Amino acid sequence: MENTIGIAGLVTAVIAALSAIIFSYQQVVHNKNSLRPYLDFMTNHSNGLVFVKIKNAGIGPMIIHSMTVTLDGEIKNSVLSSFRGILSRDVMKKYYTLDAGHPGDKKVLSPDMEFPLFYLRLRDDIEIVQDDDFYRTVAIVADTLKRIRVETVYCDIYGKRFPDKRNLNNYFGVRYPEQLPVNQENSFDE
Are 100 and 116 in contact (CB under 8 A)? Predict the structure, then answer.
């Protein structure tokens, strides 16, 4: 009788241990599939405000490993550095307050967190009347942003990498039929 109770207890313990292992594994698989980050670009070009932000629109944290900004195929340090040599500082300071960022290596964005890559705002003390310099500046900024490409490599907390390539032309210019949809290789609808 004592042996039967001992064997039953051992069998119950083995079943409980196996169940814990199986359900723990299933939980890890579920977390890997559902706690994914998703890189989204937020842009605006109206009413004296131009910005490009990245946002983690996914559920899990996003770790940015690298970001490369190119203007007409030439690598730049940031979106802002793409404007060097195109617009004079005097013209920019006359009309805009400017801020720019670059995530660099290993920046972590929690879900719904945004990071500005480029932020250009019309100065509060400027009253726009027919000023050719202002409209020329707006046109040059929009034209330059259309020619920028941002390539980002980010990963989730489990180390799975997601490459992302975006042309800002899709946001600041006409989308031509020969352009492929962005981030096609990383569709989360799998």
Answer: yes
pTM exceeds 0.90: no
All residues at 6 or more sequence positions from 162 whose CB lies less than 8 Å from its CB, including other chains = 37, 39, 153, 154, 155, 156, 186
User: Residue 119 in contact with residue 42, Cβ under 8 Å?
Assistant: no
Domain co-membership, 94 together with 165: yes
Q: Are residues 44 and 90 in the same domain?
A: yes
- The domain that contains 110 carries what CATH number? 2.60.40
Give the tens place of pLDDT for each residue, 123-150. Answer: 665 565 556 666 677 777 778 888 888 8
Total number of domains in the chain:
2
Strand partners, 98: 120
Domain residue limits at 172: 37-176
What is the rounded distance in angstroms from the CA atom of residue 111 to the CA atom of residue 84? 33
CA–centroid distance for 175 within its chain:
20
CA distances from 23 to 19, 26, 27, 49, 159 (A): 6, 5, 6, 51, 22
More confident residue, 111 or 106: 111
AA letter at 71? L
Answer whether residue 77 is part of any domain.
yes
